Amino acid sequence: METHSNGEILIGDNCSIGQNFHVTSTNGSLYIGNNTTISGNVFITNIDHEYQEIGKPILEQPLKYSKTRIGDNCFIGFGASIQAGTVLGKQCIVGTNAVVRGTYPDYSVIVGVPAKAIKRYNEETGDWEKI
Predict the structure, then answer these.
(1) Which residues, 6 or more positions from 71, have their beta carbon under 8 angstroms from its beta carbon?
(2) Are the beta carbons of 48 and 69 closer than 8 angstroms?
(3) DSSP assigned state of 93
(4) Domains in the chain, ordered, with CATH?
(5) Which tens digit of pLDDT belongs to each residue from 6-28?
């Protein structure tokens, strides 16, 4: 876990975190909700490098910070990458090796590179519905 320049990482209660987990936060908070399971080799961040000046190395370019939040009771599959600015609602499932960026509502199943939601649980019917 890494924090830089007033970054903070907040991890809720009763979380399970696998081996080789890497999380980094700068200039803001990164939140992982209660009862969330994070498998091994997962990367989570709230930082991006800008790439505006083509002749300048990326590491020398300004950083961009975006709120990253993982809701309660989520499952993050092995090798997934949760990119800056991602917001997962409660009870989301992220598939193995998914590269996730964006906002996903509660009860979403998110897979792929780039990741997209493929199913969502309907609380009224009690069924998983394809999107």
Answers:
(1) 33, 36, 88, 89, 90, 91, 92, 106
(2) no
(3) E
(4) 2-130 (2.160.10.10)
(5) 888 999 999 999 999 999 998 87
